[in-house]
Amino acid sequence: MYIFLGIMLFSVALIVGLGIAVKHFQAYWLISGYNTMSRERKAKVNVVGLANFTGNMCYIMGAIMALATILIMLGQETWGFIAFGLFVPLTIYIVIKSQQFDSNAKNRDGSLTAKSKGTILAISALMVITFLGIGILLYFSSQPNNITISQQQLIISGFYGEKIPLSTIEELTLQEDLPKILMRTNGSTIGTKNKGYYKLEGIERAKLFLDTSKPPFIFLHHDGQLVIFNYDKPEETKAFYEKLMAEYKGGL
Known about the structure:
Radius of gyration: 25 Å
Number of domains: 2
Structural class: alpha+beta
Shape: elongated
Number of helices: 7
Largest sheet: 6 strands, mixed
Strand content: 15-25%
Order of helices and strands: HHHHHHEEEEEEEEEH
Number of strands: 9
């Protein structure tokens, strides 16, 4: 959770800092596209207007990212994703609007060249496809895993799911506290929800299916591995633990 917050705060600071540098300190070399132009092409660009526009857009992007981060930290993941989704229309707007500062992108009558139109279309399509792909991935990864007991197996369906024979369980406990999460090695973290493989304090590797804000947690050791999971409601976690413990002891 704190790693996510740190990364997002750093990203916000970086974007806003970029905007300040470009708009107020004439760091035009930071403007993508402009910095690779030849001297002749640069001469046809209203760089002051482009810099002001770029700076303002950086401030807006920073504000959107900050808002999305706050929403996710507050457990409002859906609204946080929607906030992040604003980057798609904003990016398309930036690509289109920035053309007005570049005479290289215009015909003599002021209309955009075919190349500029193609660039706008390609970037817009890429942004939409990318956002849809990420959105679909985040949606399915954010869905709670269905955890059941069937035919002497603990079955965890969904992303990173697996089937654990009850006969392989070495230790089963219910704990109120969770060791500090140090690193996600292969998984999905959305707000307080963690799914996949993580490194915890004092634990080199564990597989999590849990919401850190909703203890208690079921610790299950099997085949030298550790799986930790819980349900949305504490009473559901406790009830499932008792059921799983009964099934496990019954098979001994």
